Amino acid sequence: MKLATLPNGTRDGRLAVVSRDLRRAAYADGIAATLQEAIERWDAVAPALQALYDAVNIGRDTVPFDAAQALAPLPRAWQWLDGSAYLSHGELMAKVFKIDNVQGAEPLMYQGISDRFLAPTEDVALPSEEDGIDFEGEFGVITGAVPLGVTPEEALAHVRLVVQINDWSLRVLAPREMKTGFGWVQAKPPCSVAPVAVTPDELGLSWRDGRVHRPLNVWFNGARFGAAEGGAMAFGFHELIAHAARTRNLCAGSIIGSGTVSNDSYRTVGSSCIAERRGIEILDEGAPRTPFMRYGDRVRMEVTLADGGSVFGAIDQRVVPVPR
Amino acid sequence: MKLATLPNGTRDGRLAVVSRDLRRAAYADGIAATLQEAIERWDAVAPALQALYDAVNIGRDTVPFDAAQALAPLPRAWQWLDGSAYLSHGELMAKVFKIDNVQGAEPLMYQGISDRFLAPTEDVALPSEEDGIDFEGEFGVITGAVPLGVTPEEALAHVRLVVQINDWSLRVLAPREMKTGFGWVQAKPPCSVAPVAVTPDELGLSWRDGRVHRPLNVWFNGARFGAAEGGAMAFGFHELIAHAARTRNLCAGSIIGSGTVSNDSYRTVGSSCIAERRGIEILDEGAPRTPFMRYGDRVRMEVTLADGGSVFGAIDQRVVPVPR
């Protein structure tokens, strides 16, 4: 099924069930008020949500769904842990920032800001064009409650929903924070999330091995920028979840990210962030040529199935100055 | 004033106002249900909380306060950003872990798990004694809503409450995570927080320059372990808040930590974590001698004012295996 959060004046919004084609929706009133509540009470509410989804898909008692009005599926979450599971991303970033490639036998993961996730079409206010504004297209999963010590095999059953994320990054600030070993605070402002969260079955055979086997389509100021294949993760989401839960329980509603989608064939498929393209330019031309984002620049990200249907709806946003 | 959160079967508990001597309390029912709510509506609720505090201090309509029953003041928070503002801590840790001392002109800060803060006397369940279980005694502040780009001078006015924290750390896991540059996930399970959060005025002249100028007393298995002076921060909390808010708004109820309290005079005042003592042993004796914690070991942390009165109540906990 497909779920979205629509604005109602509260920070957590109002849960809605969305038709597979993203054209119709019905509020989940009486089942769960918010997506966080639905995730916390999943076993109890999933059957009613599924029944509503079936009704929505045949057009019964629905309202038009306008993805541009949606909030992030979880407008805030108790936990956001982002991996970096695409090895070619790590290799290119090491080139760009002249740092060691830190990929190893264990997944890479940092804890990021989770008290706010931006709506998929709202303007993204950032304090300075000099910070190296960049997008990072990725996939994520929303988990149920996961016990400490879960195995990767067990972890797969705790994936409730799959989401599509833009992990905004400030590249001028990132290397200094990375060199401290403490991870990123200033370099990682709030992420954006595509309008619709989907249960894994919506991906059909494209969900397997804990990975989304579909390309992430990225357009930068209207021009095609990348279509890297999501399935190339060195670690699946089940392994990322087990890594995260090594010494902590994960609360219901934790969001686990894949890191920037990237393929070894980056010269063919393009990239999901500007920094990677700059890395390729360094390799091929000796110096980076593509600038980071300026105010007014737009990025769009969308994933479709083989039939052309949009899975999550689109992230489509413009970067703007922080209002004074 | 002094505030605590008492258990009522919900995850956020029930807000109570506690007498200065920590002997009496009154529920804040009708003012704010939870501490998070009080922080979000601070200007509206602070006068009523203060009036209740005045009444509690003269013993009107109170119940006995048992600090051992309290939850963490915020049993969960939307954001936990921990600094490392004591330079001697960084110097000793570099010795212990044979890493570069990464202290610089900017504060160090990582984002940690915030969906759960442990109650001050509950058992601390950790998965393995082989992980290098260690405590880290520190101070923290709970902020109101802080705008992006706040200056250090402005930031001080956003400090709502001061708290005392044990930032549990798993030392065997920490260096590998630090070397990735991504910060700590596995090495930093949930923190514990002392029972009472206090407004800065409760510290009198010991709150100045955005610092708590009192020693943090630490006992390990009943033996005095450290009494390092809190005032030795290289950056005050106002500077840590401004650092955190460089590219993000801080939501009301964000917790900002000082990092492990440590003084240059560590041979005299002792330490607030085992790793530091091991660093001193390496310096003085060529090898570390004090082992990390084993199951059953206890740590106690408490801060008093000059008159001997406890400021925050005590953290007093035992480490145990994760229940199977």
TrEMBL record, chains A, B:
Pfam family, one: FAA_hydrolase
All copies of domain Fumarylacetoacetase-like C-terminal, residue ranges: 81-319
Residues in Fumarylacetoacetase N-terminal domain copies: 1-76
Transmembrane segments: none
Keywords: Hydrolase
Top-rank lineage group of the source organism: Bacteria
SUPFAM superfamilies the record matches: FAH
Enzymatic class: hydrolase
UniProt EC number: 3.7.1.2
GO molecular-function terms, A-Z: fumarylacetoacetase activity
PANTHER family: BLL6422 PROTEIN, FUMARYLACETOACETATE HYDROLASE
Name of the protein in question: Fumarylacetoacetate (FAA) hydrolase
Organism: Nitrospirillum iridis
